[in-house]
UniProtKB/TrEMBL annotation:
Keywords for the protein's UniProt record, in alphabetical order: Membrane, Transmembrane, Transmembrane helix
Membrane-spanning intervals of the chain: 12-33, 39-56
Protein name: DUF58 domain-containing protein
Keyword Ribosomal protein included in the entry's annotation: no
Presence of keyword Oxidoreductase: no
Signal sequence, start to end: none
Top-level division of the source organism's lineage: Bacteria
DUF58 domain ranges (all copies): 205-352
Pfam families in the record: DUF58
């Protein structure tokens, strides 16, 4: 039974069977030459037995393993590898089918290759999850055929493995490395000119584009024969909280991911950047009630705590209650902090309902409201109208787009910082705003 479960018929087997059947039918109609299909039948039978012997004579003819990360990064391309090693004494043709988790809704993860005797191959492919949670992988099915190609033998490896999908730690590491090497400008992070700076001197460094020319150290410049500038320390140990709205306004999908997951990924990155710049990072989630609070800190295990909290966020996408958040923050966060509020407003009316609570937060803390452009509306506006219906659609889309810009002006009028960005540029826009506020000495 074990042999039968692993044995499959190849395309050449069906092709040979069809030819032999056609020969029998032809000799029945035409008469005579019955010996020809009989000879072909016995030859085919002998070849099938030979192929069976070739495939099953070696007990472990093919070994393999799927290498998956301990956790997958949400919204990023994660590399997976399948390792195969051929223990047969001949070249084998291999078809590999990987049973990936149902969340990907893909049934095309298959590969064709040939493996020389005693050789090994590594297959690399990428998966992009768009939701957090546990993903269950099935088996790696490897169908092996000999040079005869009449039969296939199936091998299975790495069955039933569960891998969690965490917020985008790949993005977090990317921006961390760029920040360490001072290459953030390569990803769109702006070089902010300082309006003022702390008087605490740190070091003298070579001038780079964007540095304040007023900080040039002329004595060091004369010694080094190139422009050198004084570098001053930023204010440190400031509290930076990411406030994540888990209400229904964050359910809207873009490129397969919800706005909530974009906000979670950006919160992870900005928390790491803040800690690297000696500030304290914290998290607060809410919808109709306050969910989770991670007090701001810069201890060694703070990023691990933030990562676990963001991974475990669940929501029913209920109506957001900003009054509860306002009262909670007044009680729990007593030190003046930078509050990065990730939410979404689609109309001026929705803003006016929450504006009194936002103003209350802005009086106690430095509040930055971060909300999203509707990229589908933007695409609709850019497309030429073909008929009267499309003209109306474009007019409505432009109305919504204009209202988003008016929301930004309304927030600024009440002394509230605002960032309007596309979901794809959320992380870069958030980091730019944080660096701008640090450079202006507002936190």
């Amino acid at each position: 039974m074990k042999l039968l479960r692993s044995l499959y018929l190849g395309n050449r087997f069906f092709l040979a069977s069809g030819v032999i059947a056609a020969c029998f039918i032809a000799t029945f109609i035409l008469g005579g030459y019955i010996v020809v299909p009989k000879v072909l039948f016995f030859i085919a039978g002998a070849l099938v037995l030979t192929d069976l012997l070739l495939l099953y004579r070696t007990q472990k003819g093919m070994q393999g393993h799927r290498f998956t990360p301990e956790k997958l990064s949400n919204g990023d391309d994660n590399e997976l590898r399948i390792y195969l090693e051929n223990f047969y004494a001949f070249v084998v043709s291999v078809r590999v089918i990987d049973e990936i988790p149902h969340q990907f809704q893909r049934r095309d993860v298959s590969f064709y290759l040939q493996v020389q005797p005693g050789d090994n191959k590594t297959i690399r492919y990428y998966l992009r999850p768009v939701k957090r949670g546990e993903y269950s992988f099935g088996a790696v099915n490897v169908f092996v055929s000999s040079p005869l190609g009449l039969l296939l033998r199936r091998f299975t490896f790495s069955a039933n493995k569960t891998v969690p999908v965490y917020p985008s730690y790949i993005q977090m590491r990317k921006y961390e490395l760029l920040a360490i090497s001072n290459r953030l400008t390569e990803t769109g992070i702006k070089k902010i000119r300082r309006i003022g700076h702390n008087l605490e001197f740190e070091l003298i460094k070579e001038y780079v584009s964007g540095d304040d020319f007023r900080t040039i150290n002329w004595k060091a410049t004369a010694r080094k024969e190139r422009l050198m500038v004084n570098h001053f320390q930023d204010e440190r140990s400031q509290q930076v909280y990411s406030l994540i709205d888990k209400g229904r306004v964050m359910r809207m999908p873009f490129d397969g991911m919800s706005l909530l997951d974009y906000a979670i990924n950006a919160s992870l990155v900005i928390s790491n950047i803040a800690i690297k710049r000696s500030d304290k990072a914290g998290i607060l989630t809410f919808q109709d009630k306050v969910g989770t609070l991670v007090p701001a800190s810069r201890t060694s295990n703070q990023m691990g705590r933030i990562l676990e909290v963001l991974y475990n966020q669940k929501t029913a996408y209920r109506e957001t209650d900003f009054s509860i958040v306002h009262n909670y923050i007044r009680r729990k966060i007593t030190q003046r902090s930078l509050l990065l509020l990730y939410t979404n407003f689609e109309s001026m009316y929705s803003l006016q309902r929450q504006l009194p609570y936002l103003q209350g937060l802005a009086r106690l803390h430095l509040l930055v409201v971060i909300f999203f452009e509707n990229t589908e509306m933007k695409n609709l506006i850019e497309q030429p109208a073909g008929d009267l219906r499309e003209v109306y659609h474009k007019a409505i889309a432009e109305k919504f787009t204009l209202e988003k810009k008016q929301i930004v002006k309304e927030l600024k009028k009440h002394g509230i910082q605002a960032v309007l960005t596309t979901p794809q540029q959320l992380t870069v826009a958030t980091i730019n705003k944080y660096l701008e506020l640090k450079a202006r000495g507002l936190i």
